[in-house]
């Protein structure tokens, strides 16, 4: 039977490159591209099939920031499939980023330069907004919409017939100091992106605790810094092009500059090939590229407590319950 792999945010960037690399490794897969824009999803599907005609590629429309759309997509997936072997929870946003140029320059002359250039600590803030469901957009897109999707797909993921896998696209910029259990949506801070990535690291740990016995395993990967629509929102493409000689030099010291989405997909593809029991739930798997352009996977112990992970999980369960009631009342 063909393995079924669902990828959110498959229409561009690392999600699209991941699909291409998965089919290069095994064109006997069924890939389902979960995208918010139908035309971009179809274009990605056509390009994948042109390169691998033997593969099966389908699309499903989902806007993970809109919970009605998530419920609709999950219903459609339950209708189409009996099981999902892998779900890549990859769609993500960083809206209206502001790069602190002064902090960037001073970091270039500090001893923490490699750390700052790998994590963007102290360099970036964002403007968040509230969605029609009354939730913070970065939180709902990067974390909560995916959480509700996983809940809705439970019957396809916990089927008792071998393990299923969740693989989250996190980030090296996930930072404990930017997350608070009292404000899980980061409604009162200026670093919602970092907070959301830290929240999904916690969530992955909690999902392992609650679902491993039922055959569902969750992992967290970071693709490194790549040139995608997300990073072109931070600086325009011509500036990236101008900085490229400097970045190639920096890459000899900072392995996080994977630069292309295909390089960035390294850890996500590597995880696909691993036995879930062999993975550490408290480890983040990082794509890395050497100064000479070779890709490899490295690991980082996540800076979190299992107690906080469980508390976040419980608060997301509560929130999901409340939101469902509101949606059902309105319909
Ligand atoms: N670029 C980088 O350096 C890094 C990126 N990441 C993470 O990688 C992931 C992919 O980003 P990347 O490839 O860089 O950027 P892209 O902007 O190229 O890709 C983001 C993908 O998410 C989709 N998406 C965004 N919002 C929604 C939504 N509401 N519903 C459904 N899909 C949505 C986009 O769809 P559409 O095509 O319609 O816009 C797109 O396919 C993100 O989670 C990001 O945080 C992590 C570390 C570094
Ligand atoms: C000289 C040089 C390397 C300049 C680049 C400066 C900045 C534009 C980058 C430095 C650290 C980068 C970074 C990201 C974006 C680009 C930088 C701020 C991310 C925030 C992209 C999305 C992530 O998930 C994490 C990345 C951390 C590092």
Automatic annotation (TrEMBL):
<comment type="similarity">
    <text>Belongs to the short-chain dehydrogenases/reductases (SDR) family. ERG27 subfamily.</text>
</comment>
<dbReference type="GO" id="GO:0005789">
    <property type="term" value="C:endoplasmic reticulum membrane"/>
</dbReference>
<keyword id="KW-0560">Oxidoreductase</keyword>
<keyword id="KW-0520">NAD</keyword>
<dbReference type="GO" id="GO:0006695">
    <property type="term" value="P:cholesterol biosynthetic process"/>
</dbReference>
<dbReference type="GO" id="GO:0000253">
    <property type="term" value="F:3-beta-hydroxysteroid 3-dehydrogenase (NADP+) activity"/>
</dbReference>
<dbReference type="GO" id="GO:0047024">
    <property type="term" value="F:5-alpha-androstane-3-beta,17-beta-diol dehydrogenase (NADP+) activity"/>
</dbReference>
<dbReference type="GO" id="GO:0004303">
    <property type="term" value="F:estradiol 17-beta-dehydrogenase [NAD(P)+] activity"/>
</dbReference>
<dbReference type="GO" id="GO:0006703">
    <property type="term" value="P:estrogen biosynthetic process"/>
</dbReference>
<dbReference type="InterPro" id="IPR002347">
    <property type="entry name" value="SDR_fam"/>
</dbReference>
<keyword id="KW-0752">Steroid biosynthesis</keyword>
<comment type="subunit">
    <text>Binds to the short form of prolactin receptor.</text>
</comment>
<comment type="pathway">
    <text>Steroid biosynthesis; zymosterol biosynthesis; zymosterol from lanosterol: step 5/6.</text>
</comment>
<keyword id="KW-0444">Lipid biosynthesis</keyword>
<comment type="pathway">
    <text>Steroid biosynthesis; estrogen biosynthesis.</text>
</comment>
<dbReference type="InterPro" id="IPR036291">
    <property type="entry name" value="NAD(P)-bd_dom_sf"/>
</dbReference>
<protein>
    <recommendedName>
        <fullName>3-keto-steroid reductase/17-beta-hydroxysteroid dehydrogenase 7</fullName>
        <ecNumber>1.1.1.210</ecNumber>
        <ecNumber>1.1.1.270</ecNumber>
        <ecNumber>1.1.1.62</ecNumber>
    </recommendedName>
</protein>
<keyword id="KW-0472">Membrane</keyword>
<keyword id="KW-0256">Endoplasmic reticulum</keyword>
<dbReference type="Pfam" id="PF00106">
    <property type="entry name" value="adh_short"/>
</dbReference>
<keyword id="KW-0812">Transmembrane</keyword>
<keyword id="KW-0325">Glycoprotein</keyword>
<keyword id="KW-1133">Transmembrane helix</keyword>
<keyword id="KW-0443">Lipid metabolism</keyword>
<dbReference type="InterPro" id="IPR052834">
    <property type="entry name" value="3KSR/17beta-HSD"/>
</dbReference>
<keyword id="KW-0521">NADP</keyword>
